[in-house]
């Protein structure tokens, strides 16, 4: 349910704008309908612009917990009935929460679209869960946190990174919430969060499929248009300057057979579509590890076999921040510090010697191939259109984003590599937990204490 989206995610397809209708209802709800008649199905996505960066100390995990509770029923659609009805109609549904958004997804035969829209409109305004349902679901969420974070080497790594890398509490906090907060949240906290943020003027509905855009827009207006807009709370100022970044070198211990290392830098956020450095950083990530022919895959995994796994890339972090991350798992014969040197050597080589046009051309081919395959999926289309609009680029901008990405020059990639080397780096290393080592201390209320070996 947790995810990040970088520029490449936003470059998933090419739309035929004549078949797409975007509108805003009088109550402020955005509606985006795209016609795709290749199969009698529809992908429905309902975005709410609320995530963990909107939360406060002591109340972390509200957005994610409310996502769970949205399936606990209304007076007309009892607990669990939403998903049961969707399944009975041959569809599937899910949801996810990240730092900036909570999204509800349904894929359904187009003949049953009306039923899904009615249920979505109903739970936008009529959610009614019991204290018992809340208590039961919080047990599920706490177990999810144990599985995804406390008992997960990668989960512990990313949580420690955010705590050490950022200054503001809502940037440090995990989307799922700190465990102590998950024990102290009350049902009324979620009810209040629902009333604050689940309003049509904080929502966007995207539908892609075998529909008529105008007819479907009118239908959405009839179902959602009567829900009144509400004043929204003032949002947290989440922006953190890249100039305030600091060096971090932290080690955590976990139950794992293999060490893990991640290197991270605060980098410029893509405020608008014309910002150049995010595209250069995105292309740098592709050069390092975006395809099978990229440097980390070719040299460190298949070539010298010093790494079992690698990844690198640019990603948004909230609405106002961004990071460039490198992740790697050394093989049994290579130490984390030795692998770190090899990872940085490749970045340094690009910074000093640049990349060739042929290398960039080789990277572009699989990226374009992925775009072609994405066009065949109405699910990918719905996700991409929604992400573009949600992130402020505008739903029409997908081709422009790809055009700018593919126009990145070797000199720009070289500048991006130099930017990393000239910036403070946050390193987190995960080492196997030894039997003689004490377990890391428990988290203080609302915060994770410093993890020491």
TrEMBL record:
Residues 30-147 form the Peptidase M16 N-terminal domain. InterPro entries: Metalloenz_LuxS/M16, Pept_M16_N, Peptidase_M16, Peptidase_M16_C. Residues 185-364 form the Peptidase M16 C-terminal domain. Its EC number is 3.4.24.55. One of its GO terms (molecular function) is metal ion binding. Keywords: Hydrolase, Metalloprotease, Protease, Signal, Zinc. Residues 1-18 form the signal peptide. Residues 432-453 are annotated as: Disordered. Pfam families: Peptidase_M16, Peptidase_M16_C. One of its GO terms (biological process) is proteolysis. Belongs to the peptidase M16 family. This is Protease 3.
């Amino acid at each position: 349910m947790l995810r990040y989206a970088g520029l490449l995610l936003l470059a998933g397809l090419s739309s035929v704008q004549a078949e797409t209708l975007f509108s805003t209802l009088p109550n402020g709800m955005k509606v985006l309908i795209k016609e795709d008649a290749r199969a009698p199905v529809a992908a429905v996505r309902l975005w709410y612009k609320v995530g963990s960066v909107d939360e406060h100390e002591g109340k972390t995990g509200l957005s994610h917990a409310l996502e769970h509770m949205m399936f606990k029923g209304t007076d007309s659609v009892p607990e669990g009935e939403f998903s049961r009805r969707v399944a009975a109609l041959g569809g599937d549904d899910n949801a996810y929460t990240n730092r900036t958004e909570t999204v509800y997804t349904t894929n359904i035969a187009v003949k049953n679209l009306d039923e899904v829209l009615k249920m979505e409109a109903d739970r936008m305004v009529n959610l009614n869960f019991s204290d018992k349902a809340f208590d039961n679901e919080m047990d599920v969420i706490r177990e999810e946190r144990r599985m995804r974070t406390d008992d997960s080497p990668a989960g512990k790594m990313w949580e420690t990174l955010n705590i050490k890398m950022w200054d503001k509490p809502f940037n440090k906090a995990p989307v799922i919430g700190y465990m102590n907060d998950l024990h102290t949240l009350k049902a009324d906290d979620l009810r209040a969060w629902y009333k604050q943020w689940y309003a049509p003027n904080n929502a966007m509905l995207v539908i892609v499929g075998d529909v008529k855009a105008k007819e479907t827009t009118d239908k959405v207006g009839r179902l959602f248009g009567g829900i009144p807009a509400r004043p929204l709370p003032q949002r947290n100022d989440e922006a953190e300057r890249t100039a305030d970044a600091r060096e971090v070198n932290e080690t955590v211990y976990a139950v794992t057979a293999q060490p893990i290392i991640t290197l991270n830098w605060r980098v410029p956020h893509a405020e608008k579509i014309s910002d150049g450095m995010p595209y250069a950083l995105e292309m740098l990530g592709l050069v390092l590890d975006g395809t099978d022919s990229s440097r980390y895959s070719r040299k460190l995994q298949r070539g010298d076999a010093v790494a079992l796994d690698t990844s690198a890339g640019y990603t948004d972090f909230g609405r106002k921040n961004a990071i460039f991350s490198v992740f790697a798992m050394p093989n049994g014969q290579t130490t984390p510090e030795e692998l770190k040197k090899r990872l940085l050597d490749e970045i340094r080589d690009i910074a000093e010697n640049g990349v060739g046009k042929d290398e960039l051309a080789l990277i572009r081919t699989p990226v374009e191939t992925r775009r072609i395959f994405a066009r065949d999926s109405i699910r990918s289309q719905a996700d991409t259109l929604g992400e573009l609009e949600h992130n402020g680029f505008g739903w029409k901008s997908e081709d422009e984003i790809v055009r700018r990405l593919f126009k990145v020059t070797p000199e720009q990639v070289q500048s991006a590599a130099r930017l990393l080397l000239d910036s403070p780096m946050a390193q987190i290393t995960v080492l196997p937990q030894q039997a003689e080592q004490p377990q890391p201390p428990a988290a203080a209320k609302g915060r994770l204490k410093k993890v020491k070996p």
